[in-house]
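Q: Is it fine to ask for two folds in a single conversation?
A: Yes, each is treated on its own. Send the first.
Q: Here.
A: Result:
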Amino acid sequence: MSDRSVAPVGAVEPLPAFELPYYVVVFSSVRTEGDRGYGETSDRMDELVKEMPGYLGHESARTPGGLGITVSYFRDIDAIEEWRSVGEHRAAQKQGRAEWYDRYTVHVAKVERSHGFARG
């Protein structure tokens, strides 16, 4: 999921609250220097995940210091497991560990409460 189109906080609309319950996958990372095909692969993963049954959307941000956070939303745990098993995604994960990430953490959680606010 590409960080090339990341906008400053507040410059884009957040995703809506989804019908409960749903799941989130929080991917926090610090990238290595250089692209080495990251952008192209990230764009491909964006396309591929959108085809997955149970995928609801994602949001990404990257700080000037290099911390990236992507929150992906899925209808259920089965959708997450199916996404994890996609061969092209597995290959991208392997390349990420070999070339693109200095470090990362993945958190998976069930969302049981969600709400939003919009001024005006």
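Q: Second one now.
A: Result:
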Amino acid sequence: MDIGNINGTTTLHNGVTMPVLGLGVYKAKEGSEVIESVHHALDAGYRHIDTASFYENESGVGEAIKSSKIPREEIFVTTKVWNDDQGFEETLKAFDKSLEKLGLDYIDLYLIHWPVPGKYVETWKALEKLYSEGKVKAIGVSNFLEHQLKDILNDCSIKPMVLQNEFHPRLVQQSLIDFCKRSQIQYEAWSPLMRGEVFKNPLLKELAKKYGKTVAQLVIRWDLQKGVVTIPKSVHRNRIFENADVFDFEISEENMRRIDALDREERTGAHPDDFMDHFRNS
């Protein structure tokens, strides 16, 4: 994994290169807000945009990419199939809708958003079909644990290239990261800043001051040094630029371990084993 500058990439097990830093657009409103956010990110040097059908802003992301004047092949675009659209045929239809909304000819990375019980293996087989047809450059999963990954590895012909999970200093899941490394699955972080909770942590504030950085920059750098692709979300130009300013310092091994030790298995989102109730009640 190259983390020398904002152009750094990691190579997935199928040879596709994925930028190590991206912009997440969860909760960015469709229309001008998400379009401007993507433009800010591209201006800052990001070449990786992460959306999902559930976010209801794929059209804006596509419009921003088209109007950016940056060649399509230089921008890595991720989207995801939502829970209600899982199953083999349903996923194929959902993919076509996402592709149409984005206005693109292909998707760089297509993910299963959550492991819907009884459906995610069939959903994965649909992703394999999309991949084999060249409609997506890479396929992966989001919000999966080791046992759900093993279901796919044991029953399918193509192993996931990426696992995107909630990941921050309070939720490290090192054994899962290690499993992914052994399986050649790239780990990726959503909610790397724990929805702002990291800013309150005394150790992170202390270390940020030591390195002359913000807490957000410290945590994003920690992600990258752990070999984790990260997609901090923001709609504010200054924050988007700030989050990219993480390539001019290095956290020592000792301080990496101190940040690791903050792990408390705390989640801001649902647990992958009981998320259905979470979304049913929300």
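Q: Anything structural to flag on that second result?
A: Two points. The chain has one domain: 9-281. The mean pLDDT is 97.
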